[in-house]
Specification:
The structure is a single chain. It contains 6 helices and 2 strands, in the order αααββααα. With about 200 residues, it is mainly alpha-helical. It has one domain: Fumarate Reductase Cytochrome B subunit. A two-stranded antiparallel ribbon has the order 1-2. The chain is elongated. The structure holds protoporphyrin IX containing FE (2 copies). One protoporphyrin IX containing FE binds near residues 103, 173, 192 and 194.
């Protein structure tokens, strides 16, 4: 199987990047909702171990998605996607827009998560990634915006959790997955095969 995309199929690298990212999204959701629904909350004495570990896992997975999307964009720029399946101009436009929107959330979700979190990340329990607040970019940005750190964190956190995490990401991924299944089972074209077996 070729590493690069061909006119007929996505290549091995694009497939690994795609399915790896999909798995990481699943991990980001499972870890954060496991923390919220199945662990005791933090209190004045700190956080229970399982609560803290689940949070750290969420932060680590989220940061990984942020790094992988940059590699993915570079690979995408260097490597044209396969020829689209036959369809109307409107269908092709909808597919393109959907894919750009997915790239946008792969950037915005990690970015807002990172910028809105006031703790360091213990990256997969291996090493520390400093919180945004303690990076030089933070002070430059806050003085440019003339906003106190707390206010900034509140807004960014709202975008991360209430707009992206709870709504937009679900809608986009559900729409994307439904479209893939529609192409495979109803239109019976090669859309899904291009990203899987290549047959
Ligand atoms: C693609 C990557 C990410 C996705 C899909 C994602 C998704 C989510 C979701 C769904 C929630 C829960 C929203 C709710 O309360 O209903 C959440 C909360 C949170 N996220 Fe992310 N996130 C990502 C990346 C990050 C990153 C990189 C960080 C920080 C380094 C981060 C920090 C947080 C924090 C601190 C919370 C609150 C946790 C809690 O209240 O239990 N996230 N995120
Ligand atoms: C079960 C879940 C998923 C299925 C079945 C699926 C399926 C597919 C398929 C069949 C394609 C090729 C579409 C085409 O050639 O027109 C594709 C492309 C793509 N998928 Fe997914 N996907 C899933 C999850 C995700 C997730 C979680 C993301 C990111 C948040 C994502 C982002 C993308 C992007 C950006 C492309 C376009 C790649 C490019 O050409 O640059 N997918 N997906």
């Amino acid at each position: 199987m070729p590493l690069k995309n061909t006119a007929a199929n996505y290549g091995t690298i694009a497939k690994w990047l795609h399915w790896g990212t999909a798995l990481l999204f699943l991990g980001a959701y499972v870890s954060v909702y496991y923390r919220q629904w199945f662990t005791a909350p933090c209190d004045a004495n700190g956080c229970p171990t399982n609560n803290w570990n689940a949070l750290q896992l969420h932060l680590s997975i989220g940061i990984s998605i942020g790094v992988i999307v940059l590699l993915r964009i570079l690979w995408r720029l260097y490597n044209r996607p396969p020829t689209p399946e036959p369809g109307t101009r409107l269908e092709h436009l909808a597919i393109k827009t959907g894919h750009y929107a997915l790239y946008a959330i792969m950037i915005l979700a990690p970015l807002t998560g990172y910028m809105g979190t006031g703790i360091n990340t213990d990256f997969f329990f291996l090493f520390e990634v400093p919180k945004f607040e303690s990076t030089p970019l933070s002070s430059t940005l806050l003085s440019a915006l003339n906003t106190p750190a707390e206010q900034f964190e509140k807004v960014v956190d709202f975008i991360h959790k209430d707009i992206l995490g709870r709504w937009l990401i679900w809608i986009l991924i559900a729409g994307h997955t439904t479209a893939a299944l529609y192409h495979h089972f109803i239109k019976k074209d090669r859309t899904l095969q291009k990203m899987t077996t290549g047959k």
